[in-house]
TrEMBL record:
Topology within the bilayer: Multi-pass membrane protein
Chief location bin: membrane
Subcellular location: Cell inner membrane
Protein name per the record: Cell division protein FtsX
Domain of life: Bacteria
Stretches assigned to the ABC3 transporter permease C-terminal domain: 202-324
Domain FtsX extracellular as annotated: residue spans: 83-179
Pfam families, per the entry: FtsX, FtsX_ECD
Described purpose of this protein according to its UniProt entry: Part of the ABC transporter FtsEX involved in cellular division.
Family indicated by similarity: Belongs to the ABC-4 integral membrane protein family. FtsX subfamily.
The encoding gene: ftsX
Protein's organism: Candidatus Thiothrix phosphatis
Key words of the record: Cell cycle, Cell division, Cell inner membrane, Cell membrane, Membrane, Transmembrane, Transmembrane helix
Listed transmembrane segments: 45-68, 199-219, 252-274, 295-317
Oligomer status and interactors: Forms a membrane-associated complex with FtsE.
């Protein structure tokens, strides 16, 4: 903004003061937006470096959040639910095991009950161990009937309390000899995820501060380059709001475009991971697939990056105005 353009802008503002206040406000905003966009690409190399720094700072917490989100799907409602295994007593007959399974299936905590008879268990044991000849020497089948219980999803919300209480309830039945709960891996994973959530929060805050510093320093350098123009504009009647407005919009563009660039980086990184993750999941017989950035998360990132740009530019301009007794 040259001195002549500053005078024209201020004179236009004074001339249009007789118009509708809302029209005047719109004209001022439009002029600030247009000027800030032109100023943004006044030095393309510096702008791209700034946008790259902002994009990298924003893509790191976004990537960590996506990683955490994908890990959480391993224990959420749409994934495999841990099972509870009931080992029945040796004296329990096959019919008694089926009757108990039918009664258990009516409990509100249970989604499904599957009966594995001792003969089926022995046949599976033969296939797994290869000790068929040794097992043939046994007079009786030493394996008990087994009930595999799939609990309902609500029971998984609190693994430390609900499942333990439910296990005690199941063990109280006269046919049940022992109860085994397959939840240790879920408990460990959720404990790791709770720690990861704290780490992601800390990293997000630190990198958010980094974005503030990058935007603030960029605006500060722009203010230094235009210091004389700002002084002349101030002398001919420009208010603090008029001086601050184009810098605020400049901060918005830096944050917004940096956020868009960070989303591009995250999407490209996901494309490199989709194939190896799918192959790894298939080796474990799982249908797990990576989930990307959805619409809600996209809007959240763009709003956050724009807000960081506003705050960074506001602090930089406010510091300059305060140091020059103009605030």
């Amino acid at each position: 903004m040259t001195t002549s353009t500053s005078k024209k802008a201020v004179s236009k503002r004074n001339v249009s003061s007789s118009s509708s206040p809302f029209i005047v406000w719109l004209n001022q905003q439009a002029g600030a937006i247009r000027f800030s966009m032109e100023r943004l690409w006044f030095n393309p190399a510096s702008t791209w470096i700034t946008l790259a720094a902002i994009a990298i700072a924003l893509s790191l917490p976004t990537s960590l959040h996506l990683l955490l989100k994908n890990m959480q799907t391993l224990t959420d409602d749409k994934r495999e639910v841990p099972t509870i295994t009931l080992f029945l007593k040796q004296s329990v007959s096959e019919q008694q095991a089926k009757d108990r399974a039918e009664l258990l299936s009516e409990l509100p905590e249970i989604d499904n009950v599957r009966v594995i008879t001792r003969d089926e268990a022995l046949a599976d044991f033969r296939k797994i161990t290869g000790f068929a000849q040794t097992l043939d020497t046994l007079n009786d089948n030493p394996l008990p009937h087994v009930l595999i219980i799939t609990p309902k999803l609500g029971l998984m919300d609190n693994l430390d309390i609900d499942v333990d209480n439910f296990s005690k309830k199941l063990k109280s039945y006269p046919e049940v000899d022992d109860v085994q709960i397959d939840v240790e891996w879920v408990q460990r994973l959720r404990a790791i995820l709770r720690i990861a959530e704290r780490i992601v929060l800390v990293v997000s805050i630190l990198l958010g501060l980094t974005v503030l510093l990058v935007v603030g320093n960029t605006i500060r350098l722009d203010i230094e380059n235009r210091k004389e123009e700002i002084r002349v504009t101030r002398l001919i009647g420009a208010t603090n709001a008029y001086i601050r407005r184009p810098f605020i919009y400049n901060g918005i563009w830096l944050g917004l475009f940096g956020g868009i660039l960070s989303l591009v980086i995250v999407h490209v990184a996901l494309l490199f991971l989709v194939e190896p993750v799918s192959k790894l999941a298939s080796l474990y017989g799982s249908t797990f697939t990576l989930s990307g950035v959805d619409v809600g998360m996209t809007l959240e990132i763009l709003l956050t990056s724009s807000l960081l740009g506003i705050i960074g530019s506001w602090l930089a301009v406010g510091r300059y105005l305060w140091q020059n007794n103009d605030a």
